[in-house]
Write a structure and sequence with these properties.
This protein is α/β, with parallel strands linked by helices. It is built from five helices and eight strands; from the N terminus they run H-E-H-E-E-H-E-H-E-E-E-H-E. It has a single domain, classed as YbaK/aminoacyl-tRNA synthetase-associated domain (YbaK protein), CATH 3.90.960.10. The longest helix has 8 residues. It is globular and about 40 Å long. The N and C termini lie far apart (38 Å).
Length: 151
């Protein structure tokens, strides 16, 4: 059992792993699985000027608005961390980063457009897996801030 699976079972969360060919980008994951792109989340780790990490969760078919996102948490700017640094922070490789259960505790901002989905898909801890979770479980487990953060 992986650490991610143990985390989900410990929190009594309903989940499903979906095997797929290795991918990094949401567009590719959507193409190989047939899951609509708007239901697969981008999980982007950003950093504030005070070096605090923030996880941004948004639909795979949308782009993050960094100014709106920074304003949500009251900072002047926020920048995505490089891929190689993201894995050290989350404990998961880019393309496999789940929306929950990270190595480093972070604030989480969840795009409000995802609220219309009962379940969402995110990285499953590895580039060859997706993880389906109930949207409300992602919000609850992260104590996520819900906001309009997309362009």
């Amino acid at each position: 059992m992986t650490e991610l699976e143990a985390f989900l079972k410990y929190h009594k969360v309903r989940f499903q792993f979906i095997d797929k060919p290795q991918t990094i980008h949401t567009e590719d994951a959507s193409r190989v699985t047939g899951i609509p792109l708007h239901k697969i989340t981008k999980n982007i780790i950003c950093q504030t000027p005070k070096r605090e990490y923030v996880l941004i969760i948004l639909p795979g078919d949308r782009r993050i608005n960094l100014l709106k996102t920074a304003a949500v948490i009251g900072v002047r700017k926020i920048v995505p961390v490089p891929f190689e640094q993201a894995e050290a922070i989350s404990g998961y490789p880019p393309g496999g980063t789940p929306s929950v259960g990270h190595k480093t505790k972070m604030k989480v901002i969840f795009d409000q457009s995802l609220l219309s989905e009962e379940t969402i898909f995110c990285g499953g801890g590895a580039r060859n897996k997706l993880l389906e979770l109930r949207t409300q479980d992602v919000i609850t487990l992260n104590s996520a801030i819900i906001a309009d953060i997309c362009e």
